[in-house]
Every structure is written in C-alpha cells, then in structure tokens.
Amino acid sequence: NVAKGELSKEPHYSVMERNDEISDMGRSVVAMQKSLHVLIERDALTELYNRRCANQRLKKILQKAESTGTKYCIAIGDIDFFKKVNDTYGHEVGDKVLIEVSKTLKASMRGKSFVARWGGEEFLIAYDETEYEEGMEKLENLQKEIRALRIPDERFEDPILITMTFGLARGMAG
C-alpha cells in the first residue's frame, strides 16, 4: 500500500497482532507512513500544513459546505514588515519569528479549523463551521496575541515585536 502511495491504510490487524519479525515490519511500515505524511503535508520550518495540503483541506471544506450548507471563513495573514526583520536581525532571527508566530497561530485553532504556511511570511487560516462575525472576532484576538509576542535576540536589549495584517472572506458554497 505504501509503495502505491496509499499512506492512510494500515497493515492488516493480523500482521500487527503477531509477536515476531512480521509484526516488527508492520510497525516499521506504520512509522514510515507517519513520517511520510509529515514530509508531504507539513512545512519543514514551521511544522504547519503546507500549501499543497491546505488546498486539499480547503476542497473538503468547500465540498462539505456545498452539500450541507455549512458556513466557513478563509483568512490570509501576513507578518508586517517581515523583510525589515530579516534585513535588521538576519534570516536566522526571521526563522525564529516565523516559528513563534506559527506556534501562536496553531494554538488558536479549534475544531476542524486549520492554519497553513501559504508562502514566505504568509499564512492561510480556514475557519470551518464559522460565521463571518465569529471569524472576525477570532482574528482580532489572534492579532492581540501576536502583538503580545516578545521574541528575544541576545544581540539586542529589546525583544522583537511583531504585528500581522489579516484579510477575511466569507465562504460561499457553489
């Protein structure tokens, strides 16, 4: 199954129940499947979903909305003046900023909502089963959390402060 690209299928339960080399191989296959999922679906730096995976997940949200009428919102967020961060502090610190912002974004996700690194310093947020007004409220809270981040750099006395700008669109089925 793995060789065919079917990463979600687990070995037959009879293989996993054994207590020999065959079951060891089965557990190794499961571990390899999980590792491949991470490599295929996640951004290496931030560990958020990557753009490819986000597109697949967005299709599922849209299909659900079309069949059930479920509300959803999509947001794009951009770290303000990120080029200036890289130019002033260097790319290592820029990476640190991306990681800290990503942790904050990921921690704010609830239910079937998700966040993905869309590119560079841009992030996509999909709020599934969410009305527009609720999505706006979530983004406003998220902006406050990001504004409260203090990213230290041992070379400077003051921590790096970050802000983000978001745009939110109401999901429309069909």
Description:
There is one protein chain. Helices cover 49% and strands 16% of the residues. Helix 4 (82-89) crosses helix 5. It has helices spanning 13-17, 21-41, 51-68, 82-89, 91-107, 132-147; strands spanning 72-79, 114-119, 122-128, 164-170. The chain is flat, with a radius of gyration of 20 Å. By secondary structure, it is an alpha+beta fold. Strands 2-3-1-4 form a 4-stranded antiparallel β-sheet, with helices on both faces.
* Weakly predicted, low-confidence segments: none
The largest sheet, given as strand count, sense and whether it forms a barrel, is:
4 strands, antiparallel
Count of beta strands: 4
The overall pLDDT, averaged over residues, is 87
Helix content: 40-55%
Any chance you could write out the topology, listing elements then pairs?
Elements: H1 13-17, H2 21-41, H3 51-68, E1 72-79, H4 82-89, H5 91-107, E2 114-119, E3 122-128, H6 132-147, E4 164-170
Antiparallel strand pairs: 1-3, 1-4, 2-3
Helix pairs in contact: 4-5
Index terms:
four-stranded antiparallel beta sheet; single chain; 6 helices; alpha+beta; flat; 174 residues
